[in-house]
User: Which sequence fits this backbone?
């Protein structure tokens, strides 16, 4: 679901970023107002969980791959506004450091995965858990909400891809950016997300939420109980241990061969569509430090683990620094 | 006295209070010190960024596990060093070697981060003990000890002196410009006086020209419990592991 650069026109990217700017501003204001200062650091853990979740690629027959995002999970743990900022930060790190998702398309990626996904998922979750509900029903609601959330995000991404050939063509009538229209992009994106990737999101959300429930860390923001746990609560240490375990398991994501739909390189697009769209041939390129989560000549599994370690550590450090500054 | 200078002294003194002091489970400071130097040496010898990135990844995890209020202090120095390095390496990028800029900047960041984290985990007392365990000349340890002690003592003296100068000044003036020379001169005289006094005191106590670091300052194997011993043995395995990784990553 990470839209690379040059698949969307600069105009589309600008509009999506313009939509996200007020969303980020409102989220930051809400976090300052509602989230306890000592819990800001937990946003780092949520961002790290989402970052690692996105590294577990799941294969689909036909050679395409996808992954969970953990947007609804972050929204349940911290609230949708904090989830929006956490996932946006994870996406920024992925784009800058690992070249996963475009720099120009950052606004569009944030719109899909950091705005639509957590807000839709959280709204559904709240609707299904009104009043007193059992833990089991809460988990079922979280699973269902995450499934709808990720599909809503995938639909938005498919529409963003699909409108490109309608809006941006050259004099010969060839698309300038993504060459596939809505009739191709929607079935291609939704096919995977309604089946395997949606289930991956459900499994990721439910398993981690159940774990957090068990270790007493599921109420990160103290919203349900109304009681804010100290930051060094045993639950937070166990969440860090969970992140460590997930990091070690990330090479599983390498078992899925192939590229996700809409994330191909220029050559792959040229061979599939029969031509290279002009906007892609002469588009913006970003040289990431660790492209595709690889580290130089190291084996891919080791590079994947190192990338996960760096990503998770940077996110946790970043939010700990922000929480310290806010507390000060 | 410059507030930054006071902060540096504070950090040195604070390292004694926040460093690892678990009763029976600890890593030998000498192991930590040698591993840090080993890491920096291998990083300097590596021809690409792979080894450096791997070490940075581990050090970032260690940093992420620190409390938020200490992370800023830890990261400030490596980031400043890296920014300065990147600045002076800009000509390399302009001449068509951007990879060199990235490599050198990463190496500087890694080296400073390793040292800062060593300072976070090992107290000053343990560090000088580690120097002694490495059979570094005692006079070297003595100089380090003396330097830190006198930095603190003379620093306090300097602060008192500058406060006195400020209290006696009626008009608004930059005391650093007007009284700095006088203060520095007085501090030098004072330090000379204190050095003579210390030398005389040492002679009175039987000083014959050699300085022995107390063995009490060095941690001992027998003070460790079984878990601590296993931990230290595992820590020792990091040396061949690092070397092997360095050879592979080259």
Assistant:
């Amino acid at each position: 679901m990470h839209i690379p650069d040059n698949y969307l026109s600069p105009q589309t990217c600008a509009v999506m970023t313009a939509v996200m700017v007020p969303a980020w501003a409102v989220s930051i204001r809400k976090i300052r107002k509602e989230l306890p200062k000592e819990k800001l650091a937990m946003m780092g853990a949520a961002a790290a969980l989402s970052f690692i979740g996105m590294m577990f690629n799941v294969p689909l027959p036909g050679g395409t791959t996808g992954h969970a995002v953990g947007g609804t999970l972050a929204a349940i743990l911290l609230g949708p506004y904090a989830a929006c900022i956490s996932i946006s930060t994870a996406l920024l790190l992925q784009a800058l450091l690992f070249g996963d998702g475009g720099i120009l398309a950052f606004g569009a990626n944030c719109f899909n995965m950091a705005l639509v996904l957590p807000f839709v998922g959280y709204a559904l979750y709240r609707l299904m858990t009104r009043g007193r509900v059992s833990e089991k029903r809460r988990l079922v609601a979280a699973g269902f909400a995450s499934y709808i959330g990720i599909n809503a995000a995938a639909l938005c991404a498919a529409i963003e891809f699909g409108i490109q050939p309608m809006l941006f063509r050259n004099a010969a009538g060839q698309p300038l950016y993504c060459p596939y229209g809505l009739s191709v992009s929607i079935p291609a994106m939704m096919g995977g997300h309604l089946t395997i990737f949606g289930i991956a999101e459900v499994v990721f959300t439910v398993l981690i939420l159940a774990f957090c429930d068990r270790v007493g860390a599921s109420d990160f923001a103290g919203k349900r109980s109304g009681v804010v746990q100290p930051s060094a609560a045993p639950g937070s240490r166990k969440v860090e241990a969970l992140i460590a375990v997930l990091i070690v398991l990330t090479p599983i994501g390498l078992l899925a061969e192939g590229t996700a739909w809409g994330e191909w390189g220029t050559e792959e697009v040229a061979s599939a569509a029969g031509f290279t769209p002009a906007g892609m041939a002469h588009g913006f390129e970003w040289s990431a430090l660790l492209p595709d989560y690889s580290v130089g000549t190291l084996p891919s599994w080791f590079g994947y683990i190192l990338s996960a370690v760096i990503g998770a550590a940077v996110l946790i450090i970043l939010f700990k620094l922000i929480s310290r500054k806010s507390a000060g | 006295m410059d507030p930054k200078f006071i902060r540096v002294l504070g950090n040195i003194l604070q390292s004694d209070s926040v460093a690892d002091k678990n009763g029976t489970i600890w890593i030998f400071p000498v192991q930590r010190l040698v591993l840090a130097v080993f890491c920096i040496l291998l990083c300097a010898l590596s021809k690409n960024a792979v080894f450096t990135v791997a070490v940075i990844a581990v050090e970032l995890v260690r940093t992420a596990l620190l409390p938020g209020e200490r992370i800023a202090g830890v990261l400030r120095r490596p980031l400043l060093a890296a920014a300065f390095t990147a600045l002076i390496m800009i000509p390399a990028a302009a001449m068509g070697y951007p990879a060199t800029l990235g490599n050198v900047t990463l190496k500087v960041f890694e080296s400073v981060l390793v040292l800062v984290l060593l300072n976070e985990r090992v107290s000053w007392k343990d560090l000088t003990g580690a120097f002694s365990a490495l059979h570094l000349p005692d006079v070297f340890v003595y100089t380090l000890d003396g330097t830190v002690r006198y930095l603190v003592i003379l620093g306090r003296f300097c602060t008192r002196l500058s406060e006195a100068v400020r209290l006696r000044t009626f008009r608004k003036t930059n005391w650093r410009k007007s009284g700095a020379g006088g203060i520095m001169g007085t501090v030098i005289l004072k330090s000379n006086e204190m050095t003579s006094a210390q030398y005389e005191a040492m002679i009175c106590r039987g000083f014959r020209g050699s300085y022995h670091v107390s063995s009490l300052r060095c941690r001992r194997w027998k003070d460790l419990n079984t878990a601590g011993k296993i931990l230290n043995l595992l820590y020792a395995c990091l040396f061949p592991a690092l070397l092997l990784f360095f050879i592979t990553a080259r």
User: Anything to note?
Assistant: The interface with chain A takes residues 48-50, 53-54, 56-58, 60-61, 63-65, 67-69, 71-72, 75, 102, 248-249 of chain B (CB under 8 Å). Chain B has two domains: 1-19+125-219, 26-122+240-249. Chain B has ten helices and no strands. Residues 26-122+240-249 of chain B form one domain.
